[in-house]
């Protein structure tokens, strides 16, 4: 990940109270530049939280596509 952050750093951050990607950004500096590490950081965070709390990992949420109103003239 960026800024030499590893999964170990994320696990440690979770132990110290981090629960969101925003916390990781604030505490470790991940996703502060291009954002390419966001998915990996999120996956590591989710895994670390599951391990820390002793709960099974929740499945990745599926987001519905936004519905954009489409004017008939645009078709
Ligand atoms: S790789 Fe993390 S912000 Fe770019």
TrEMBL record:
<protein>
    <recommendedName>
        <fullName>Bacterioferritin-associated ferredoxin</fullName>
    </recommendedName>
</protein>
<keyword id="KW-0411">Iron-sulfur</keyword>
<comment type="similarity">
    <text>Belongs to the Bfd family.</text>
</comment>
<feature type="domain" description="BFD-like [2Fe-2S]-binding">
    <location>
        <begin position="2"/>
        <end position="45"/>
    </location>
</feature>
<keyword id="KW-0408">Iron</keyword>
<dbReference type="Pfam" id="PF04324">
    <property type="entry name" value="Fer2_BFD"/>
</dbReference>
<dbReference type="InterPro" id="IPR007419">
    <property type="entry name" value="BFD-like_2Fe2S-bd_dom"/>
</dbReference>
<dbReference type="InterPro" id="IPR052371">
    <property type="entry name" value="BFD-associated_ferredoxin"/>
</dbReference>
<dbReference type="InterPro" id="IPR041854">
    <property type="entry name" value="BFD-like_2Fe2S-bd_dom_sf"/>
</dbReference>
<keyword id="KW-0001">2Fe-2S</keyword>
<dbReference type="GO" id="GO:0046872">
    <property type="term" value="F:metal ion binding"/>
</dbReference>
<keyword id="KW-0479">Metal-binding</keyword>
<keyword id="KW-0249">Electron transport</keyword>
<keyword id="KW-0813">Transport</keyword>
<dbReference type="GO" id="GO:0051537">
    <property type="term" value="F:2 iron, 2 sulfur cluster binding"/>
</dbReference>
């Amino acid at each position: 990940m960026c800024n030499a952050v590893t999964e170990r750093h994320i696990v440690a951050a979770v132990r110290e109270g981090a629960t969101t990607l925003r916390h990781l950004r604030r505490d470790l500096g991940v996703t502060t530049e291009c954002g390419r590490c966001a998915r990996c950081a999120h996956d590591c965070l989710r895994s670390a939280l599951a391990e820390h709390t002793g709960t099974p990992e929740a499945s990745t949420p599926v987001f519905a596509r936004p519905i954009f109103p489409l004017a008939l003239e645009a078709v």
